[in-house]
Structure formats: structure tokens, C-alpha cells
Amino acid sequence: MLNFTQDIGIDLGTANTLVYIKGKGIVLSEPTVVAVNNQTKDIVAVGKEARDMIGRTPGSISVVRPMADGVIADYDTTAAMMKYYIKKARGKSWGFGSKPNVVTCVPSGITKVEERAVIDATLQAGAKRAFPIAEPFAAAIGAGLPVWEPTGSMIIDIGGGTTEVAVISLGGIVTSQSIRTAGNTFDRSITQYIRQKYNVMIGDRTAEDIKMTIGTVKDPDEYETMEIRGRNLIDGLPTTISINEVEICHALTESVEHIIEMIKSTLEKTPPELSADVMNRGIVLTGGGALLKNIDSKISETTLVPVFITDDPLESVAKGTGESLQYINKLKNNPNVSARMSNV
What we know:
- The chain contains eleven helices and 18 strands.
- The C terminus is likely disordered.
- The strands form five sheets. The protein has a five-stranded mixed beta sheet, with helices on both faces. A five-stranded mixed beta sheet has the order 13-12-11-17-18, with helices on both faces. The protein has a three-stranded antiparallel beta sheet with strand order 5-4-6.
- The chain has three domains: 152 residues, 2-Layer Sandwich (Nucleotidyltransferase, domain 5); 101 residues, ATPase, nucleotide binding domain (Nucleotidyltransferase, domain 5); 69 residues, Alpha-Beta Complex (Actin, Chain A, domain 4).
């Protein structure tokens, strides 16, 4: 039996990376952003510090997101970022020479090649052994669902790069789907809407702020407005405009409908007995997208199934990834949860 005295769980998300240490809980939560020197290729900044540089760097520095749509887009940068986060999370008290065993969360729709890249990056970052676990399964554990019992539990995790939907029973994923329509897609939809309607270009951070402040998926009776700054595409000068919740709702409609169609499709593929369990217990919603105003009621109205947002939607996947460490012997032999142990 393996001795996991230094176990670490990593939620390697497109938007944010969270690190869980066994016995301590979540010890680090940082944006999945890295600033790189274009000449030397050295890492200039990681996480919050790098995020603050977005849109403000000179030509010699590039700010990159090494994860795209839930998978590694820049292998070397991802490995360097993970090494930085593991070192920062462990601190100096762990001593030198020891390597942790790491469970890393991956999308359920990931290919074997993409999964192998995550394992290799985790090992290159300093892990002794690397274990991938499917994102919806980790989210279900983190949300406190009875994943090991003979009952159906449905989880929806709307992250930054992917939306994962899965029905889980008896420690395995019975049916699942994964699409690359999620939080970042919402941001792009907002940017595109403002560009088309107002001829104004806004940055990624502004789009995210709009989503978090007045983002909604249902037309409100009374709506909030928000002033934003951007660049006028006609004269090239800075400008300020006012937008409201109704506009953002319209901007997000297509993306939200895409997610709802996937949810309905997953329900249609669920065995009748488990479908009845889902109807009785409801659907649990996690991830940053769960914070989008009225998204729970929108899904419930469309599917006719109760929808509940977990207490800590932003931390459910990381919490579940960390808590899965105690089930490592179950997970490493269960291909239904993408937990194949590396041969290192």
C-alpha cells in the first residue's frame, strides 16, 4: 500500500489553479496565468501577479494562459507553473529532496494523449507519482454526493474552459459529456456583443468583470447597469459606455442554450433507474459558472429537474480532488474516473 504522507490534489483549471494538501485543505488559489520573457523564455510572474499584467506589458513580456479549454496548450509553461505552485503550497517546512504524490483533475472528455500530457507535466513539476481524476467525479466528491452508493447523482461543473455533466453511481461515471463552452466562452460572447453593438473593444478582464457584476441568463424585470471603458473602433480613442443586465443576458443566450442542450442530452442517455434518482435528488451545480445569476433556475425550468448550487462552487473540484486521495486504491484501478496511475 502506498504511503501518501505528502499527498497533493491540484485542480488545474483553465481560469484558476487550486492546490489541496492532505490534512490542510485548500492552501492556494491562483489564476492560471503566467508572464514570460520573450527573449529569455524565463518566467517573470505567475498567478495573481501575472494576471495583473494582462494588457499592461511591454513587448518583451507576454502574459499567457497555458491551459486552453481544459487541456494543456503550452506544455513547458504549464509544467513550470505547476512546479511553482507545488513549491509555494508546500512551503519550506517540508524539507528538501522529498517529492509529493499528486492527483490532478482533468476533463472527462480528455483524450489519452491530452491526459498523458497532464501526467508528464505533473511529474516534470516534481511529483513522485501522478494520478489523473475526472473533473465531474472530483466535483461530486467535493459537493458531498454519495458517489460510492448504488444511487444516481448528477453533477454539472461549469468551469473556465469546459462544462462537464455526469451521472455517477457506485464509484463510477455512468454517462457523461464535456463541451468547451464555459466561463471563457461567456467572456468572449460579451466582448463580441459589445463590439458589434457599440463598436467598442474591451479587454478580457473587463469582460470577466461584466459577467461577474451584471451577468444573468434570464431577462430581469428590473435591471442593473454598469459603466465600462474600452477603445472606440471608429476613432481609436478611449470611451465609456453604459450597459445593462438585459443586454448581457442576450449576449449569453447562445452559450447557455448550448450547455442546456448538453444537459438534456445526458439526461436522455441516463438509465431509467438512475434517471429517477436524479429526479428525486436533483442536479448539483458547481464551478465558477454556477455563480452566474439565475443559471440554476434556468436549467431547472428547462429540464424540469430541481437544481441546487453547492455551498462552495469555486472550490468543489479542488476539494474533491484532494479528498479523493483517501480513495486512491479504488481510483487507480477504475478507468471510469480517469485515474490511471503513472508508471513512475
